[in-house]
């Protein structure tokens, strides 16, 4: 089990999220980034639906170890677990991603999330989809310039925000 304080995405939200995502794009072979991975539920779900690779970013060492063990137990060799903060990870050089899940702890401020999303800009593939999960009382994320907000949906205490890299940018 992930450490106390990890807040996994509810099954209801996860099902709705992936239903919408799969109506937008084919997940076969895509590269997924699961920021603030926690239990890794979103990244593992993407892998089970055909994603080619998932990178899990988790700052808590114990949670990162659980992610590694779970990936092995589930038979997913196509994973990377980075035991770093989301901000440190996204500002580093590296591969580009097709789908990004950002499910920060509710305590992460709007400004902290803005830094992460803007730092992530250079790591986004040409038509990447970003999905941000926040407390329903939080503000909509401050998207990077090349990301167009698509929609927001509330599920009780949770809000899910969708953005996609603009085709002209």
TrEMBL record:
Alphabetized UniProt keyword annotations: Methyltransferase, Transferase
InterPro entries attached to this UniProt entry: DNA_methylase_N6_adenine_CS (IPR002052), RNA_MeTrfase_RsmD (IPR004398), SAM-dependent_MTases_sf (IPR029063)
UniProt-listed GO biological process terms: methylation
One GO MF term attached to the UniProt entry: methyltransferase activity
NCBIfam families according to UniProt: 16S rRNA (guanine(966)-N(2))-methyltransferase RsmD
Name assigned to this protein: Methyltransferase
């Amino acid at each position: 089990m992930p450490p106390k304080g990890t807040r996994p995405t509810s099954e209801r939200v996860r099902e709705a999220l992936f239903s919408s995502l799969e109506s937008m794009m084919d997940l076969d072979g895509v590269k997924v980034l699961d920021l603030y991975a926690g239990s890794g539920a979103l990244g593992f779900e993407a892998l089970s639906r055909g994603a080619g690779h998932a990178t899990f970013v988790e700052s808590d060492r114990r949670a990162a170890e659980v992610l590694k063990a779970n990936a092995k137990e589930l038979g997913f060799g196509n994973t990377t677990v980075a035991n770093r903060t989301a901000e440190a990870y996204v500002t580093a050089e590296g591969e580009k991603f097709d789908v990004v899940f950002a499910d920060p702890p509710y305590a992460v401020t709007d400004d902290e999330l803005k830094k992460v999303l803007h730092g992530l800009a250079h790591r986004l593939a040409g038509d990447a989809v970003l999905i941000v999960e926040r407390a329903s009382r939080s503000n909509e994320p401050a998207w990077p310039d090349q990301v167009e907000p698509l929609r927001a949906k509330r599920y009780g205490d949770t809000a899910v925000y969708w953005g996609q890299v603009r085709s002209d940018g």
